[in-house]
Structure formats: C-alpha cells, structure tokens
Amino acid sequence: MEVCLLSYWRSIAEVLLNLLSMLIAMLYDCKANELGSEKGKGGQSALLTTIPRQRQPLLPLHLNILQFQFH
C-alpha cells in the first residue's frame, strides 16, 4: 500500500516539475525575444550573451532529489 502511494505521489511530482520546467523555458524564451526585439536586428541581446540557453529539461535534477527523499 505504501509503495503504491509513494509511486502515485512521485508520478504527480514528476508531472508538476515537468510543467514547471516548461513554464520557465517559455518565460525565458519570451523574455529573450522581448529583449532581442528591443535591441534591433543587429547583434544578440544582453540576455542571450550572458545566460547560455539550456535545452535540457530541469526534470532529471529534481528527480534525483526526489529519489534521495524516498530512500
């Protein structure tokens, strides 16, 4: 019973963290586009040069944290 309940809550946490990482990526892209349009067509915006784009999801880091909490 406890194992089933833990896997249920873990799957809910995985979905929520995945949604959160997608939301952060969307907000980051919107802000980068906004700064890029303010700067004009020549060169990159300040945000794109100071913060490297991260295409990997943030989920595996959070899953590792969840695994440590469950064991």
Topology:
Blueprint: H1 2-39, H2 46-50, H3 59-70
Brief characterization of the structure:
The chain has 3 helices and no strands.
Uncertain spans: none
> What radius of gyration results from the CA coordinates?
18 Å
H and E string: HHH
The proportion of strand residues reads under 5%
Major sheet summary line: none
Shape call: rod-shaped
For the record, the count of structural domains works out to 1
Helix content: over 70%
- Structural class, from secondary structure content? mainly alpha
Tell me the total number of β-strands: 0
Integer average pLDDT:
70
Count of helical stretches: 3
- How far is the first residue's CA from the last residue's CA? 16 Å
Can you describe what's shown?
This protein is mainly alpha-helical and 71 residues long. It has one domain (2-70). It contains 3 helices and no strands. The chain has helices at residues 2-39, 46-50, 59-70.
Keywords:
mainly alpha
